[in-house]
């Protein structure tokens, strides 16, 4: 019997499984689809501190930023002593190095294209620049203020006319599907004191109870008994919680990404976005919101986002949204007008009403741990979430106060 069943093989579930195995626990990961088949596979791979307000999510992001750098092959220094101040108790042994790759395999960033590229947030007006500067100071993270004459030192192809910006060296990017698959593979291969097994094509239909505790999951292929269950089902985390009779209000928030043809040269050096992106992330609106976000990839294409709207699980391609994203990207980088968009894809961010993820054991269903509701920050926050969940599972004190993320903080709506 495994110690833990993790529901969900996206990047958050993969991180929970990896760190639990590292803690010496036997883990089974189940997913009704393939690895990274949900929100993770439709993400941009953002690892951001720049878009976080001061508070618990920023603390979580700083811890996760440090862990990502450890996983990528040794901490690169940035972020180790800023904000939050949470120690991880991790070291270089957590790094994913060349020896962990399949025979003949070699990829930058420890096997999942980790790029410590930094992020540049630009302001259209002096008023917006003042607000951006105030946010950067309040965050207390590493940043560099850039006046209008300095923006092109960071991005030579950026459009002219911006009032200035803020550069965040800690912002980074990762290939989300490679990261999810890599964490599961490493958990299965590396730790002799903990085992990790992956079972895809398995649908969870309910929970097994022993008295007042969750003692496993019921699936379409039979029961899997375990000492604990982790709900890392992403956008479907609320549905999984409901199977256990508890209320966790997670809703899908659709977003589109445009992908250009491969570019011959480095047109975009960093992750670049306008200040409107910060506002959109924090918005409670169910309507359509878009803000320019542009970044390159190691293979050449440029990713263009971002849009947000609550339309359920409707995957209908919206040409007006794609046109708006393309227009906003060209306003940032006029040279993009000379390149074609070759495809677009959409995903569903797991949205919580207070914009904070749900992390920790559910007091209403002992033995059930939640690791979901990260909205668009799940890829960036995955290692910290997995690390903290693993510490709880192992009976250890987590480095961060998980009270703001508690599963029972929501008031259930009257039916």
Structural class determined from secondary elements: alpha/beta
Share of β-strand residues? 15-25%
Shape: globular
For the largest sheet, list the strands in their spatial order. 5-6-4-14-15-16-13-17
Helix and strand sequence: EHEEHHEHEHEEHEEEEEHEEHEEHEEEH
User: If you average the pLDDT, what whole number results?
Assistant: 87
Number of H- or I-type helical stretches: 10
Q: First CA to last CA: what distance? A: 38 Å
Folded structure, characterized:
With 415 residues, the protein is α/β, with parallel strands linked by helices. The protein is 26% helix and 25% strand. It has helices at residues 11-22, 56-71, 109-113, 126-139, 151-154, 176-189, 237-243, 276-282, 319-332, 378-393; strands spanning 4-7, 27-31, 46-47, 119-123, 144-146, 164-168, 172-173, 196-200, 204-210, 213-219, 222-225, 228-231, 251-260, 271-274, 289-296, 302-308, 341-351, 358-361, 368-372. The strands form 4 sheets. The chain has an 8-stranded mixed beta sheet. Strands 8-2-1-12-19-18 form a 6-stranded mixed beta sheet. A 3-stranded antiparallel beta sheet has the order 9-10-11, with no helix packed on it. Strand 10 (213-219) and strand 11 form a beta hairpin. The longest helix is centred in the first third of the chain and has 16 residues, at 56-71. It is globular, with a radius of gyration of 21 Å. It starts with a strand and ends in a 22-residue tail after the last helix. Mean pLDDT is 87; it is low at 74-109.
């Amino acid at each position: 019997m495994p110690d833990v069943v993790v529901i969900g093989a996206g990047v958050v579930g993969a991180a929970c499984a990896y760190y639990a195995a590292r803690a010496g626990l036997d883990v089974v990961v189940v997913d009704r689809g393939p690895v990274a088949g949900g929100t993770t596979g439709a993400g941009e791979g953002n690892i951001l501190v720049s878009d976080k307000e001061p508070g618990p999510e920023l603390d979580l992001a700083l811890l996760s930023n440090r862990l990502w750098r450890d996983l990528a092959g040794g901490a690169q220094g940035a972020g180790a002593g800023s904000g939050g101040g949470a120690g991880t108790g991790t070291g270089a042994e957590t790094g994913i190095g060349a020896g962990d790759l399949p025979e003949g395999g070699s990829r930058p960033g420890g096997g999942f294209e980790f790029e410590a590229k930094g992020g540049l947030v630009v302001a259209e007006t002096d008023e917006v620049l003042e607000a951006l500067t105030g946010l950067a100071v309040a965050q207390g993270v590493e940043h560099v203020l850039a006046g209008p004459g300095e923006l092109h030192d960071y991005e030579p192809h950026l459009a002219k006319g911006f009032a200035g910006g803020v550069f965040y060296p800690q912002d980074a990017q990762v290939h989300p599907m490679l990261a999810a698959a890599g964490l599961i593979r490493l958990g299965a291969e590396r730790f002799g004191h903990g085992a990790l097994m992956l079972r895809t094509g398995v649908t969870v239909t309910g929970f097994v109870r022993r008295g007042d505790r969750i003692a496993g999951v019921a699936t379409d292929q039979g029961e899997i008994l375990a000492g604990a269950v982790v709900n890392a089902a992403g956008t479907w985390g609320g549905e999984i919680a409901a199977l256990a009779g508890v209320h966790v209000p997670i809703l899908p928030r659709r977003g589109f990404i445009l992908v250009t043809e491969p570019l011959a040269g480095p047109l975009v050096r960093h992750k670049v976005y306008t200040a409107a992106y910060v506002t959109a992330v924090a918005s409670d609106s169910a309507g359509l919101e878009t803000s320019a976000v542009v970044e390159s990839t190691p293979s050449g294409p440029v990713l263009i986002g971002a849009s947000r709207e609550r339309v359920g699980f409707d995957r209908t391609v919206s040409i007006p949204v794609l046109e708006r994203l393309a227009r906003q990207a060209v306003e940032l980088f006029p040279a993009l007008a000379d390149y074609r968009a070759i495809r677009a894809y959409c995903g569903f961010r797991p949205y919580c009403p207070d914009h904070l993820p749900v992390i920790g054991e559910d007091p209403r269903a002992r033995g059930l741990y939640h690791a979901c509701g990260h909205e668009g920050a799940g890829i960036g926050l995955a290692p910290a979430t997995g690390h903290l969940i693993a510490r709880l599972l192992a009976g250890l004190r987590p480095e961060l106060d998980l009270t703001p993320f508690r599963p029972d903080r929501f008031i259930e709506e009257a039916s």
